[in-house]
Amino acid sequence: MPRISEEARNRRRDEILEAARGCFAAYGYEKATVVRLEQATGLSRGAIFNYFPSKDELFLALAERDANRLGRLWADEGLDAVVRALVGEDPAWLGAYLEVGRRLRTDAAFRERWDRRAPEVEEEIKARLERARDAGEIRDDISLDAIGRFIGLVVDGLAMRLAAGFPPPDATEILQLVGDAIRGPASGEPARSRAHPCRPA
To answer: Would you say residue 32 has pLDDT above 90?
Structure first.
């Protein structure tokens, strides 16, 4: 039997992830049973688990992919792109994705695997913030770690409200408020005239 090419294997892996994403969105983590995952993907459990050793690993792969996607958006295009992507996200999937937070809090093994993710994207986001601070686009009277946590709280809060079914907010207004907060008091220059820290440099 010929071996499947790496390209075909990656394509099949992505197809499984996309189908599983819809299943987790529709049923949540607990009720997205293996039978439902089989129905969603059109594959047997043996075929699914050939790519992902367990439902847990499949969900973790999805969560990592979304975290990396949003992190990459932030690193490459700025917070503006992240907020606009979240506003356009499927609320049902966001509800399933929030399961990551519960698992991180209650499941030490899951948290350990999550912490092993490659740190490259986080390092690029930190470098982006450092460049913005050095360019005078964000305040320097508060640590970058605190600014990063503040932005994380805004993004997490937005995801929770969308997952709960609240109507999407005006992304421009949210970004303006965040920008005003992390830009801080102007030093002899009108705040509106400076580069917006949420947008690409």
So the answer is: yes
Would you tell me the crossing angle of helices 99-106 and 108-115 to the nearest 10 degrees?
A: 110
Phi-psi map region of 184: left, alpha, beta (phi>0 left; psi -120 to 50 alpha)? left
Q: How far apart are CA 121 and CA 42, in angstroms?
A: 33
Crossing angle of helices 55-77 and 108-115, rounded to 10°: 40
Q: What is the pLDDT of residues 39-88, one digit of tens each?
A: 999 999 999 999 999 998 999 899 888 888 888 888 889 889 999 999 88
**23 and 116 fall within a common domain:** no
Phi, psi of 92 (to 5 degrees): -65, -40
pTM of the model: 0.74
My answer on whether 180 and 115 are in the same domain is yes
- The amino acid at 95: G
The CA distance from 79 to 76, in Å, is 9
Q: Which helix (H) or strand (E) holds 5?
A: none
